[in-house]
Sequence to fold (253 residues):
Amino acid sequence: MFREERHQAIVTLLQSHGRVSVADLSERFGVSEVTIRVDLQALVNQGSVVRTHGGAILAGYGVQDLSLLRRRQRHVAEKARIAAAAAELVGDGEAIFLDSSSTTLAILSHIRQRYDLTVVTNSLVVAQELLASPKITVVMPGGTLHHDTVSLIDAGGLKIVERCNISKGFFGAHGLTLEDGFTDVSEAEARLKRSIVGMCRQVIALLDATKWGRAGVASFADAEDADILIADAAPEEMVSQMRALGVEVNCIG
Fold:
């Protein structure tokens, strides 16, 4: 394969998977990792890709995918079914964490009538939508406003959250692979979520069918860190692999 053909093949892979790694490309094309790094730098110079640690993503990919408005308009019916199943796990008197993902936001309509519920969240949208629910206490970490996700992001602002006994954490993800675990396209968001994952007694992942086998820029949890995974549909092989790791997978299709 000529260099130009390899470049086009790399871009095609990025369009399909969102992210590529130097090691995987080296094995796929039968060339050295040095050659792949040269290829990626050439694509960076063309403005086609953005280099990440160990690989690359498409230029502009992360910004587009982080837009909360766009994400809330995608796969609405699937997210609604996932959210309804997730809300059944929430009981009165609990403290739960809701991240700023669009799937997690769909839970709100199902929990407004819970009693003595504490919702820990970094999402300004979650906080705003719960203003009309006086029985629910909202706790927010400090941080810097991230405009695309309408959330506060700063792992250093978690001191108030550390005082909460979080029984369940609900996390959306850009994607899930066995190698990368649960990933996000924002490194800062992933860093915050990684800290909160460690504070939750139960970690509950919410994934629509498009997220399986897909990887973002940064990992916030290993695959086995999830206690429960709720999905509308999923590839059978990956479901079996997740269950082998001890994860309870509920496909509500």
